[in-house]
Every structure is written in C-alpha cells, then in structure tokens.
Amino acid sequence: MTLHQSLADAIVDGRAYADGDRIDAVFRQVRAEAPLDVAEPEGYDPFWVVSRHADIKEIERQPDLFHNADRAVVVQTRANAAKIRQMTGGEANMVRSVVSVDGKEHKDLRGVLFPHLTPRSVRPMEEQVRKIACEFVNQMLELGGECDFAKQVAFLYPLRVLMAFMGVPLEDEPMMLKLTQEIFSGNDPELNRSGKQQTPEEVLQATLASIAELENYFLGVTARLRETPDDGLNSLIANARIDGEYLTRRQLLGYYITAATAGHDTTSNTTAGIMWALAERPQLFEQVRQDRSLIPALVDEGVRWVTPVKHFMRTATADCELAGQKIAKGDWLMLCYSSANRDELVFDDPFEFKIDRKDNAQLGFGYGVHVCLGQHLARLEMRVLMEELFDRVASVELSGAPARTISNFVCGPKRVPIRFKPC
Amino acid sequence: MSGLSRKWRCRSCGYIYDEALGLPEEGIAPGTPFETIPEDVFFCPVCGTEKQDFELVDY
Ligand code: HEM
Prior knowledge:
By secondary structure, chain A is α+β, with helices and mostly antiparallel strands. Chain A is built from 18 helices and 14 strands. The longest helix of chain A has 31 residues, at 249-279. Chain B has a single domain (2-56), classed as Rubrerythrin, domain 2 (Single Sheet). Helices cover 0% and strands 17% of the residues of chain B. The radius of gyration of chain B is 10 Å and the shape is globular.
C-alpha cells in the first residue's frame, strides 16, 4: 500500500503547512487510515510517513537502527539528493553537523556544547536573557499599541539572545536573520533569496549560496577564536578537540551553521505562535496574567501547537518491523513531529490550545539521542519574555490576518499583527 | 539488590537510568537507588533534563 497521492504531495508541500488547517486535516486522515505508510510524492524517492507519536519515539529510541547520516536528514527531491551527494563527494547532507551524523561522531560533537546547555548551565544566563527581553518589550510598547509581533519582536529577540551567547556581534544580526530565513524558507517568495516562486533546483541553488555566505563568515571566526578564545558558544566550537584533534573544516562549519540557524528560528516561530494563540483567546490571556506560574505550561503548549520543526528523516540500517509494517534496510522515514503533536491517542482535544495538559508529552523538541540540544535555553527564553510581557501588557487582540511561512521543514507564523494595551 | 533494582525514564529524551548499572561516568555507583541521588547531582546525560522530570518505568 502507498499513501493516496494527494496526501503524499501535501506532506512535502510547504503551502499545506502555511495553511494550518490543511496540514492538520492531511495528517488527521493519515493517522486514521494509514499511520505508517509509504509516500511517493512526484519527483521524490519513496519514504515512510511516520505519523504517530509512539512510532516516532520507537524510532528515535533506536539510533543504531535508524541513522541520520545515510540519506538526507531533511526531505529532498530525487534530483536535489543526487546533486548534494555529487557536491559533497558522497555525503547525503549539505552540512555535516550533530543532526546529520551518528554513533561516536554524534556523541563527540554533541558533547562539545551539551555541558553548556543543560538547565543548570543556562540558569545563570537568566539575568542577561531578561535584560534582552525587557529591551524588546520596551521597543514593542514604544510602537504605540499595534505591531507585527512576529516581525518586530518574535524574530528579533531569540536572535539577539542566541547571537549574544554565540559571541556574534550586534551588527551581524541582520545578516544572520536574512541568511537563516533564506535557508529555511526557500519556498516562500516573501522570505527567500530571489523574492520569487522557485523550482526545487532553484531552492537548492539559493540554499547553497546562503550556506556559502555563512561559511565565509565563520571561516574567519575560527582563526580569531583560536587566537583569542572567549566564553561564547562559537569559541567552544572553534577550540573543541575530539580525540586530541580540532573539528574538521566541515564539522566546524556545520556546527556554527546549525547552531546559528536552528537556534533562533525555531524559538521565534514558537514565540510568534504563542502570541497568535493568546491574541485569539482573551480568557487564556487573563488567566495567565493572573497566575504567572502557568507560563511554563503555556510555553510547552506553544511548542506543541506550533511544532516549528515539521520533520526530520531517518534511514533504516537493517530490515526490521515497526507498527506491523516491514521496513527494509535503506528505507527512508519521515518523522512527522507536527502529526505526532496532534496524535489523538496521546492528546485529548489535540486541536485545542490547552495549558492544563497533565505532563504535556509534546515531541516538538524531538526525542532520543538527537533530542534538541537547545531546549532548555529555548524554554528559558520564552518563559522570560512571557513574564516580561504579562508584566507590561494588559490585553492583546489580532489587528489583521496572521500568516504562516511556506515551508515543509522549520517554519511557523511569519505575520502576527496585534493590537495591545499596556498595563 | 537486583530484585529491587528499578528503571527511571527521562521524559524528554527517553534515556533510562537503570539502578543496577548506576551512572559511573557521573560518579553514581551501580546499585544506587534513584531516590537517594541528590537533586543537584543528577541530570540526564543525554539531554540535561533534571531529576524531577524522570518517571518510574513499569514493566
Ligand atoms: C522552540 C525552540 C526549538 C525547537 C522546537 C527545536 C526543535 C528541535 C528538534 C525537533 C530537533 C531534532 C531532534 C531529534 O532529532 O529528535 C532539534 C535538534 C537540535 N536543536 Fe533545537 N529546537 C529549538 C531551539 C533550539 C535552540 C535554542 C538551539 C541552540 C541553542 C537548538 C539547537 C539544536 C541542535 C544543535 C540540535 C541537534 C541535536 C542533535 O542532533 O543531537 N535548538 N531541535
């Protein structure tokens, strides 16, 4: 059996994710009729669509059986996958980083930043994060009661926090934001490099050009930080040694690029989505305003609601069975986090935004050995911003139509126009 | 000890703390019951999650 063509095509179509209801309806049908089945969208090699929460966890629990490196870790057309292999000398992924390696290399690379991103390590950063959050809330209040919360707050605040911790100077932030958006939003003419609708080949070309710009930027950074190390994350990457050796050029650039892109766009999308949810739910806004201890639950439900990382791919390293299906060695599997986070078997009223979920089991940060390295920092950033906002803002409502980015990978709201009253 | 040995799962990433094995790399000896590990000593070696976010695994 394979998935109905219209479902398969929608699962790779960024426009379906831009229309939240459409992708929800697609995955609702997939979960009900064929929760683990093969999709063959036009122009793509076939892959398994893993739509259930339990099946994603089962796969992520077995990193030796389901690899990240063997085939592309983000879904690619057949032609683009071949092009990437050709360009990298046989590797399946453009960038070599923690997300695209397995086994010892993964453990070693993850170990470079892990000790600096645990809850205990990020807790002392709270004061600095709060200062940044305050600046952005002040700026928002100066806008006089109306703003596009996505563009004017949500996309800038996590960027500022991450760049501060990485050790990237303020003046380079606009370039970082632009390149990140180009990389993650190649299918959205409002955010991509050409400003036009692009074919998959053009998207790949543009992504490679943006990656090359980031590589050029970071090449200089390594030399400087080896000479004069500082306490930023970039310095840890530049000076890390595995078995006595510095990281290879590809590992270094891959690490900087992954941290510099995945580390803010995800948090920005979630932050924008939380505000969108609040602006539509005045009672919820008032409830949290009265009881700030609800903010962590608001943030976790925000991660479930937005699920800014829509998927990652895995490749089976051996024949195996999963949820009654026979998976063959070499098969490609799409872990659909946005579907898992609406799974009726796990969440009551999955299509409702509810902050009273007991033990919210959302999978927005993934699971297993690749689980998000920045989750504790992301949670801290979002909690602190919400605390500052609830201190200063008495009410919010939508002042226009919000919109989501066209993308099937990392995405969420790109416009959240709001009207707000200061306290 | 082994008859009483229990397993605890990290809610965030699924890492299992097996009391029989302990976590020698972090100075937690094999056979150490989870409840006796001080809150400020233990965190998940895979994702950093703290002790209160571990759950007992029922078999
Ligand atoms: C709301 C914010 C965020 C979300 C929803 C998110 C989501 C994710 C997801 C789904 C994965 C893949 C997990 C898997 O394969 O199971 C991941 C991995 C990763 N994330 Fe995040 N992320 C966020 C914020 C951050 C931040 C702030 C940073 C950096 C400080 C970061 C750095 C990383 C890295 C380096 C990985 C790769 C880990 C590995 O493969 O071992 N993320 N993230």
